[in-house]
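Section 3.1: Structural characterization of target chains.
Under the original work plan, the team committed to producing a structural model for every single-chain target entering the pipeline before any wet-lab resources were allocated. The record below documents one such target. The sequence was received from the expression subgroup and is listed exactly as submitted; it comprises 139 residues.
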Amino acid sequence: MGKSTRTALQAAVFATLAFGAGSAFAVEPTGLWYDHTGRGAVEITKCGNQLCGRLVWLKDPKHAKQVCGIQIIGDLKPMGNGAWDGGWIYDPERQSRFSVELTPMGPRALKVVGYMGTKWLSETMMWTRAPADLKRCGA
């Protein structure tokens, strides 16, 4: 392999690694997300310097009147490594509130870790990006 070929290859590898790392951290968890069950969607927005989220779509419309629009995520703070933590998530089915950490796993996936006090006792769920034109409950 010649010097110019090796230099070009090294530049290509560096660009790929730099682009990959940069794009992972550039993704924010704001927007519309289907939950891990596929039965609900949450809109995550900025609330000052924090994140919050509201339930905006339910697959079963008969439950929509009961929980549509309720805040189920709050007080999340940026951790500097792409994750948001220190907030809470409400599970309407269990009628319980848990601590939560959100970590974007690219533009189409969001890792949601719900925990009680310590992350040793946690549940990890993967949410997927919902379309921006999703018909919201109550609309």
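The chain is about 20% helix and 45% strand.
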